Amino acid sequence: MLEVRDIQRSYGKNKVLKGISFDARPGDQIAIIGRNGSGKSTFLRILAGIDKPASGTISFWGSRADKHKSVFRQFTGYLPQDNPLLDELSVQDNISLWSGRGGRPSQELITEFSLDDILKMKVSQLSGGMKRRVAIACACVSNPPVLIMDEPTASLDIYFKKEIRTWMKTFRQGNGIIIVATHDELEMNDSTKVYSMENGVLRHT
Ligand SMILES: Nc1ncnc2c1ncn2[C@@H]1O[C@H](COP(=O)(O)OP(=O)(O)OP(=O)(O)O)[C@@H](O)[C@H]1O
C-alpha cells in the first residue's frame, strides 16, 4: 500500500507541486499524464526518494519514507526519464552496481529480460530499446514491490513497447504497484487509474 499526502515542491518562485495526494494498492497501475513541464518527473523523483518535497508525506505499507532513507530503497525501483546506465560499463556491471551487492545478476532477471546474449556487452553498443530494457532490469534488480517509471516506452519501437507493456502487466499481476508518467494512450488504457497533473495538483480523469 502506497499513501501519498499533500506533496509540495517549488523551484525558486515556481510552485511545481501544490499538494499531491493519492493511494495505490497492490496490482494498481497509476498513470500520471500532463503537459510537458507540468511536474510529472519532479513528483516521480520525490516518490523515488531522489528529491525531497518541501512538505507532505509518503508511506509504504505504513512506513513513513521521510523518516528512513532505507524505506525508499526497500520498497521502490525507479526508472528515470533519461538513460541512467553507465555507457562504458557492461550490462552485467551496470546491473551489479544497481543491486548494490556486486556479483552476477540472478538467472531469473537474466531470463525475464532476455539479457543472456548481451550481458558482456558495453551499454554503448546496445540499441536504444535494449538500453531501456536493461534500465528497467536495473530498476527491478532488488525485486521492489513499487515500480516508478518515467515514460518507460517513449522512443521505443512497437515491438519493444508491446513487450514492456506485457512485462508491466505481469509485474502487477504479481501484486506489484506501478506509478507511470506517460504520454502513451495504450499505457493509459492499461492503467487502473489515470491522473492528470494540472496546475500542481492531480486530477482524476
Ligand atoms: N532542477 C530544476 N531546477 C529548476 N526548475 C526545474 C528543475 N527541474 C524541473 N524544473 C521545472 O519544474 C517544472 C516541472 O518539470 P518536470 O520535468 O517535472 O515536468 P514534466 O511534467 O516531467 O515534463 P515532461 O513531460 O516534459 O517530461 C518545469 O517548469 C521545469 O522547468
TrEMBL record:
<keyword id="KW-0547">Nucleotide-binding</keyword>
<dbReference type="Pfam" id="PF00005">
    <property type="entry name" value="ABC_tran"/>
</dbReference>
<dbReference type="InterPro" id="IPR027417">
    <property type="entry name" value="P-loop_NTPase"/>
</dbReference>
<dbReference type="InterPro" id="IPR005895">
    <property type="entry name" value="ABC_transptr_haem_export_CcmA"/>
</dbReference>
<dbReference type="GO" id="GO:0022857">
    <property type="term" value="F:transmembrane transporter activity"/>
</dbReference>
<keyword id="KW-0201">Cytochrome c-type biogenesis</keyword>
<dbReference type="GO" id="GO:0017004">
    <property type="term" value="P:cytochrome complex assembly"/>
</dbReference>
<dbReference type="InterPro" id="IPR003593">
    <property type="entry name" value="AAA+_ATPase"/>
</dbReference>
<protein>
    <submittedName>
        <fullName>ABC-2 type transport system ATP-binding protein</fullName>
    </submittedName>
</protein>
<dbReference type="GO" id="GO:0005524">
    <property type="term" value="F:ATP binding"/>
</dbReference>
<keyword id="KW-0067">ATP-binding</keyword>
<dbReference type="GO" id="GO:0016887">
    <property type="term" value="F:ATP hydrolysis activity"/>
</dbReference>
<feature type="domain" description="ABC transporter">
    <location>
        <begin position="2"/>
        <end position="205"/>
    </location>
</feature>
<dbReference type="InterPro" id="IPR003439">
    <property type="entry name" value="ABC_transporter-like_ATP-bd"/>
</dbReference>
